[in-house]
Design goal:
Elements: H1 2-14, H2 18-93, H3 101-108, H4 123-130, H5 140-177, H6 188-191, H7 214-257
Helix pairs in contact: 1-2, 2-4, 2-7, 5-7
């Protein structure tokens, strides 16, 4: 093709057709420019198509993360409800008379002392942020929704951490103030090879029959804090589950629009 254009130019010069040569040269330049523009357009289209595929991949990964997190929220809500029920049962039975070590230990086995931390699936979002690819989400409304959601996660994570630290400090204080607390919930046979069942004494459980004692009331306080904490956790996980559902819907809408 280049050889053909060269021959045409040479013939026009030889025949001294300057006007036609100039018109031809301009036409050739225009064709070259058009060719470059077409090539650029194709390149831009390919690049745009590549970015769109990458965006779709990231959105699918975000969707998978959010779906896994929904299961995680449900499991934690169930666990929190179990803890609340067990600890309420403990408070009700705490005022019953404990006639033996076995009854006291059975009672002390009721409470649950979970300190759940917020551990969601955030690898995809973290990768988007650390790699500087957050802007690959082309829909500005969706991008803002994603950022706002994970900022909310950070806020809730701090709230859970603070609540757990407070409850654990309170439990730590109770245990240090009233030595022997841990063994109240242990079976002597589990520890017989280490020590002996003499470490389990009736007097160790007498506080359970004395509601006016400081140890009894302190134990009540600890239980109430754990109940209150997990009630807050239930509200928190339900809120995150609701926000996840909205974000999942927005991602689905984006998929539908890009079909």
């Amino acid at each position: 093709m280049i050889k053909l254009f060269r021959n045409i130019r040479q013939n026009l010069i030889i025949e001294n057709k300057t006007g036609k040569y100039l018109k031809y040269a301009i036409g050739e330049i225009v064709l070259v420019v058009i060719g470059i523009l077409i090539a650029l357009q194709i390149n831009n289209w390919n690049e745009s198509n590549k970015l769109k595929k990458e965006e779709t991949l990231y959105l699918k990964r975000l969707k998978t993360d959010l779906e896994k997190d929904t299961l995680y929220y449900n499991n934690n809500i169930d666990r929190a409800n179990l803890l609340i029920d067990r600890n309420y049962t403990f408070l009700k039975k705490l005022y019953d008379e404990q006639k033996s070590i076995d009854e006291g230990r059975e009672l002390m086995n009721l409470p649950l002392w979970d300190s759940e931390y917020l551990t969601i699936q955030d690898n995809t979002y973290s990768e988007l942020v650390s790699s500087g690819k957050l802007n690959i989400i082309s829909n500005p409304t969706l991008k803002v929704a994603v950022v706002d959601f994970y900022r909310l996660i950070d806020s809730k994570e701090n709230s859970i951490k603070e609540a757990n630290e407070y409850s654990r400090e309170l439990m730590g204080y109770y245990v240090s103030t009233y030595p022997g607390t841990i063994k109240h919930s242990r079976n002597p046979q589990e520890m017989v090879k280490i020590v002996n069942d003499k470490m389990f004494r009736v007097e160790d459980f007498q506080f359970l029959n004395n509601p006016s004692s400081s140890q009894f009331q302190s134990l009540e306080d600890v239980i109430l804090v754990y109940i209150s904490k997990h009630k807050e956790f239930i509200n928190l996980f339900q809120e995150l589950k609701s926000k996840s559902k909205v974000l999942l819907y927005q991602i689905e809408q984006e998929f539908n629009e890009n079909k």
